[in-house]
Amino acid sequence: MTTVRAGAASDVGRVRQRNEDSALVVDGVYAVADGMGGHAAGDVASELAVAALRRLADLPDRTPQDVHDEIARANADILASAVEHPVRTGMGTTVTGLSLVLDGDTERWAVFNVGDSRVYRYDGEVLTQLTVDHTAPQSVTRRRGVITRALGTRPAPPADLWVLSPVPGERFVVCSDGLPLELTDDEIAAALRAEPVAQAAADLLVHRAVLAGGRDNVTVVVVDHLATGPDAGPRTRGAHAAPEDEDTDPGLITYLGLDTDPLGIPTRP
After folding, report:
1. Judging by beta carbons within 10 Å of its beta carbon (0-12, 13-18, 19+), is residue 264 exposed, middle or buried?
2. Do 214 and 11 contact (CB within 8 A), yes or no?
3. Is the pLDDT of residue 122 over 70?
4. What is the spatial distance between Cα 197 and Cα 200, in angstroms, rounded to a whole number?
5. Is the pLDDT of residue 170 over 90?
6. Average pLDDT over residues 30-59
């Protein structure tokens, strides 16, 4: 049985007037959603995304397909909310994270992503980005933040989903793009080395991102797969309470993503 300890932190940053990020830390399910739309209720979209994923905690024998289905339900929930409340028309959100799942009789990690929020894996030495950013190349757009996949679109965007074997002692970082906007991979790894406790590491990463500029909302969930020690439940703070190259990731066993043409989602305000 995989023993996990997790912590979460969030900050509006130094520029934005509202925090449109949402975080989820429940038993075996960890996610971050970064809302888009500003006045069109990006915060509502991100809350709806994590609310859908929260339902996974009620499935003790959840599978990778269950994760995929809840992401699709989140997209439907966001579209339905926009129909019911026209002022929310155009709202959307990224969503990324990981969940413990059963692959046959074996417990695995399912890593999922839609958009440019990220999941990293840290093995004590090397920080590896597991997810692939769904953004148009800067050489094409000439500006940051043009998302090519997001929840809140019709047709529903395909979610990337990877299944990995758990490795005791590994650490994951789930974050909105406000973190890598301000900190390099080396700086993120340094913070993870400095703080062995998940909550303290999440707090430190958010603090350093804000000090480095805080140009966007920044939300971080740190998930530790404990090698030894007592069981510990997740702890949350902040937010709305609530592998590009397969050959370089030795834990990767399945890829379930689908490639599509860019959807042309507008740049964040």
Report:
1. exposed
2. yes
3. yes
4. 5
5. yes
6. 93
